[in-house]
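Much of what follows relies on a compact textual record of a protein's fold. The record below shows the convention in full:
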Amino acid sequence: MKKQLLIVLNFLPVLLFAQQEVRFPDDFRTSALNGKEVTITNTLTLTSNRNYNTGSITLSKGQLWTPTEKNQPGIEMFNQENQANQENQLTVRQGTFSFTDANSTCRIGQTVEGLTGNASYRNGTYTITLTRKPEFKGNERPTSCNITKQYNLKVASFNLEHLNKSIDTYSIKLSKVALALQALQADIYALVEVEGAAGLNELCQLLNENYKLLNGNSDTQKYQTRYYRDNAQGMACFIYDSETVTPIGAISPNTLADNYLPNRKTAQGFQLNSNKERFILCCNHWKAKVGSNIPNQYKDKGDGQGAYNLRRVQEAEATLQFIEEIKKTYNDPDVLVVGDLNAYTCEDPIRTLEDGGLVNLLTTYAPNEYSYAFFSNSSYAIGYLDHSLATSTLEQQAVDARPFRINADEPQRMDIDQSGAQPGNMYRCSDHNPIVTFINLGTGTTGIKDIPAYSRPTIRLTGNPRSAYLTLVSNTSSPITRIEILNISGQSIATHNMVDSAGIAESSFTFPITGLTRGFYLIRAYDEQGECTTCKTVIP
């Protein structure tokens, strides 16, 4: 009997002080866990990296959505959703561990399982101090934005967050934005918050220089600009690939919304060179949710839509009227409305556009992603301020739309004017994620003849990296004409043209990798029509 009792006493400290398995937030609604080491068994999502450089982040059960991204506006709804977001937040302190990954960043949207640490309770909320290194997974930095579906036109819309030559960090920002546009490889870029034509032209020039560097062509001006009027208060403007599309007519400003900053609402018709099909691109930057000396009719009503909601509704109504005008101007029914509309998906301005007949492509193709993250009402929440909506005829030709998550997921500390900035790459070049819309122009089903879209080559990367050579093989009839090797930051470090002296491209190509250091690389393969497929490899 004494021996059995001794065994129990020997194990008692272990039983008393063993790590406790819990679930968040279910088991965190009282102070019972205070002072205990716990392991959280359910998956948590990194929802705030605002303070990661000072040693803390916020985790939640799932993402924290801006209330009006998923719910129609209303005071009661807004208060309830904000309260739910606040209760679904766990502050995590790093202890002796680091939140910074191999890219010297810490991205929201990553997940972690088996989080272990000491719990402390204060003022009704818990903090966990890590006692075991966490393994964050998912939402790695993207390096390119392509899809496997067939398309012949890629449109990228992007709020550049004040591309302004007067700021001290302009050259850094210009370089980072150019890297982002280069990675997007869009046929048309619809840009807002460009503070004057000088910056737009320099950005376009940098794109051309990068293209010449990669392709060895010193004469071409592949990329060209389009804007309504030089304006230092911000322009809605375009950069386009002249080899792929041709502008139709003059650029058109939208002056219907009481002539409110028409430079921020413009449209341009484009013709696809390959099949002569047309569409109209309408680029917008609507009134922000904040301001000073706000008139009474525009003040925040507390329903989640912020200030100037009525102003944005007026801009939406004017946009619908504008669409009918530009259809006649450019003689085409296919219109794509993009830009920073400063309204989340379920707010009145977006619903006004939808009620007016536009189809929201992001709710169709990427309903659980986002373009913006913002700290408000004690939560760092996400949603779409940037949109892609199409008329019914163009919607039938759209094949995908999604954000290129290079900015909003990154810490604010990496802004170009902050100590954590990374000048050599494209990440956090703005606070908005670009939106990319993929279209098969000319392949709709309503009064438009079917025209085969370009198909992307199916590429296999073969060979042993230790042998100093790799081989790309195309499994289709479309031969490979050029390959490009990029490092983990998205910077091009080598290019190989694969067309021989007789102008003939091959379906396979072996290339050297002897000059590459150890690490992760992307291999981009281009076919005869300039379409791109990306492969990955690791040099051991």
Q: What stands out?
A: The two ends are 61 Å apart (CA to CA).
